[in-house]
Description:
By secondary structure, this protein is α/β, with parallel strands linked by helices. It has 16 helices and 30 strands. Strands 1, 2, 3, 4, 5, 14, 15, 16 and 17 form a nine-stranded mixed beta sheet that branches. The protein has an eight-stranded mixed beta sheet with strand order 19-18-23-22-25-24-26-27. A five-stranded parallel beta sheet has the order 6-7-8-9-10. The N and C termini lie far apart (73 Å).
Amino acid sequence: MLKCLIETARGLTDADLVIKNAQLVNVLSEEIYTTDIAITNDMIVGLGKCYKGKQEIDANGAYVVPSFIDGHVHLESSMMLAKEFASAVLPTGTTCVVTDPHEIANVLGINGINFMMETTKNIGLDVYFTLPSCVPASPFETSGYVLSADALALLIENPRVLGLAEMMNYVGVINSEDKEIAKLEVAQKCEKRIDGHAPKLCGKDLCAYVVSGIKSDHECTSPEEALEKMRLGLNVMIREGSAARDLDSLIPLLKQNNTRKCIFVTDDRHPTDLKEHINGMVRRVVEAGVDPIKAIQCASLNTAEYFGLKKVGAVAPGYKANLLILPDLKSFKPHYVVKDGKIVAKDGVLTSSITDVFIPSYINSINIEKLTLEDFVITPKSNRVKAIEIIPEQLITKETISEIKIKDNNAVSNLENDTLKICVIERHHAFKSIGKGFIKGFNLKSGAIASTVAHDSHNMIVIGTNDNDMFVAAQELIKCGGGKIVVNNGEVVAKLALPIAGLISDKTFVEVLDECYSLNDAIKIIGSDLENPFMTMAFLSLSVIPDLKITDKGVFSAKIFDFIDIFDC
Length: 569
């Protein structure tokens, strides 16, 4: 094999594929120039004129760039099997992702990680893993499983495992808690990466977090925050998800500072946001005035080098033949997507289907003791409460004082000021643990919505204008093994069943997409004008994100790192 590659590089043997007359965007030398690109097997063997190939493509001056890498994504958030995710993103130019399976790990533990590893084989998309560092994300919620350092050590040496995923318990790290230090040491002993997750952390506490060995963060929401972290050596993962959209606010960083420390990630993407993927991020920053070469580096080389992926991220001899042929450097819609030397997509369509994938059997993961209407009652102490107020397109929330209504000794939603009841129901062990509070920002005028996608422990979360519709929504999700639902006047208006861990559908991308559109249409009918209401709802139970969140154990303040009495105002 090596002899063949050398002879082909010298031009003594015809290459398998030659792309002629390409405008190569060379992310290594940071220049654009005309050349031919010779490919044999899955490898780029040469750059230069006069190569001959068994197959030849005349680029006619089109641009060739390395294919894109998503540096941090939870595949489960797409609510599809990995093969369906691959069918959606490969035509956009993403050929590699680094996934953190902490969603399914919170439900199924090691078995969930193994499920993701098995179902990401032979899907045309390279899938690498970082191991969940915080299952559960905090001790203030009930998860299906707890993953210790010993459990992580069983998988850390797998060649597809690149490191330890986002260390969300930054409080535990900077306070040197033994269980968190043990997890960090698991990765350090194998010299693998440790990703961070530290919103708003700064100063000496941030220094302590960085000195622990953490090398990245994807929670920056301002250039100032990102620059402080970059100055301390962190790689800034610029996130553009469905709920958390930080790209626009961080564009000034890409114009003024060292872009080689920046990586593009999506974190959590809804199916309706997969028509563009990393290519959409590149397009938008270039439109905003960022140098195209710098933008492409953030989507390829920077990510590969950060994770130590030595043969991807650039177009040069010795690199995998993973590349895109682009008509221009404006739209970033690939004409061709080449993966391992083969054309896998053309003009936004896969050239072959993904079928040879083994899907292990799965069981119902919804384990809730029988619910009654009374379980949704909140005994009032006053008509004023501390409510969770959402911030559109952000994961962070704020605490606000709001008036609710009282009916038959039950604190109920106040539609006049958009203060709605919210409950989180433990669904792993039938503990009958239910956190109850109020939320502002959804603007529902009737009905209720519910989901078993609720980060990170994925208990059932329900928001409604009245207790009866909340009860019906919860009951219907129990029946279908988990999912997302809209109920109005006691009737199911739209539903997406997610029978795999209450997180993933067993249907095709097109089918899931259609049902997602139906959910969005239904929730608009009952009043919400949020762009991604279900994704926004999913993060309201993530207790490690400021300011106010809700878990199955109650309403939690990240400011004081403790539960609060919602009537104490």
